[in-house]
Amino acid sequence: MNKKIQTDAVDHLFEAILCLKSKEECYDFFEDLCTVNELLSLSQRYEVASMLKDRKTYLEIADKTGASTATISRVNRSLNYGNDGYGLVFGRLDNPAK
After folding, report:
1. How far does the chain reach from its first CA to its final CA, in angstroms?
2. CA 10, 13, 17 angle in degrees (round to 5)?
3. pLDDT in tens, 29-66
4. Location of each CATH 1.10.1270.10 domain in the chain
């Protein structure tokens, strides 16, 4: 695995996230880990990705999420040229049996 972000510290963080078992545990952990603004930014990017997947326009996305066109463009670039992490999650949410 040749990931730009792969370090022991990131591995430890992902192992911690993978051990969470409920939405409530996620809230507790991420509220301790992130600032409110960091968490809101992450959730905004995820919403932008979801809306792009559903073929919403930049204007619709900006109006609904408050995201800047620069953020929407960055997320769109990740959807089209990234590691397909969004696609993996969307696929599993759409079909939980996978």
Report:
1. 22
2. 135
3. 999 999 999 999 999 999 999 999 999 999 999 999 99
4. 35-97
- The pair of three-digit structure tokens given for residue 60, joined into one six-digit string: 């619709």
Phi-psi region of 2 (alpha: psi -120 to 50; beta: other; left: phi over 0): beta
**CATH entry 1.10.1270.10 includes domain 35-97:** yes
Structure tokens, 20: 């969470």
DSSP 8-state secondary structure symbol assigned to residue 60 = H
Put simply, whether the predicted model's pTM sits higher than 0.85 gets the answer yes
**Residues across the chain:** 98
Cα distances (Å, whole numbers) of residue 14 to 9, 46, 62:
9, 18, 30
Tens of pLDDT, residue by residue over 18-32, are: 999 999 999 999 999
